[in-house]
Amino acid sequence: MSAHTANHSSEEGQTRRDFLLLTAGAFGAVGAGCFAWPFIDSLNPAADTLAMSTIEVDLAPIQEGQAITVKWRGKPVFVRHRTAAEIEQARAVNVAELRDKQSDTDRVKKDQWLIMVGVCTHLGCVPLGQKDTDAKGDFGGWFCPCHGSHYDTSGRIRKGPAPKNLSVPEYSFVSDTLVKIG
User: Fold this and answer.
1) From CA 163, how far away is CA 158, in angstroms rounded?
2) Residues β-bridged to residue 150
3) Are 106 and 93 a contacting pair, CB within 8 Å?
4) What is the pLDDT of residue 35?
5) Checking phi first, is residue 137 left (phi over 0); if not, alpha (psi -120 to 50) or beta?
């Protein structure tokens, strides 16, 4: 066998080997993608959650001083029709003394309506304070009995381990008696 023939045969074998390696690698990558896709897709929000990305709440039946809880994106949302005394109490707070510095006017669009996600910012518990018989904490708002967080009448953290105020979701008033959350 001549040197040229041996060299040609060696190059052909190397080319064939490269092709087989690339083909096997491509099939492996496609196989890994097919295996991983169901897991990655499971991280997307469920269809029922997406369907509830916005809700409308009729405010007409909620009396002054009363609070209701609605479910939005799988979370409780507190809607409270605040009294004049609750509004006054929330406005009288010195914002500089708060852990999470937000004024009451930054948290509401209409003074009498406080709308916020009812999940404690410490460990995700649902604070008490929606019912007349619930403990409302030292500041007349909400109290998380799990670890002792106290929120005021604007949903701001005032005492306890929670690092932040109860969050205010995106919302808009469709009319005087109808609010759209989300």
Assistant:
1) 10
2) 143, 159
3) no
4) 79
5) left
Question: What does the DSSP 8-state code read for residue 168?
Answer: P
Catalytic residue (one of 4, 122, 147, 150): 147
Q: Strand 55-58 vs strand 171-175: parallel, antiparallel, or unpaired?
A: unpaired
* Domain positions in the chain: 1-44, 49-181
Is residue 81 annotated as part of the catalytic site, yes or no?
A: no
Return d(Cα 113, Cα 99) in angstroms, integer.
Answer: 23
Q: How many CB atoms lie within 10 A of CB 32?
A: 10
Indicate the SS3 state at residue 67. strand
Q: Is residue 131 exposed (0-12), middle (13-18) or buried (19+ Cβ within 10 Å)?
A: exposed
pLDDT along the chain (182 residues), means of 10: 55 78 85 79 69 86 94 93 95 94 95 95 88 89 91 94 94 94 92
Domain 49-181 fold is Rieske Iron-sulfur Protein (2.102.10)
Q: Which two tokens stand for residue 129?
A: 């304070």
Tokens read off for 93 = 């707070």
CB 57 within 8 A of CB 70: yes
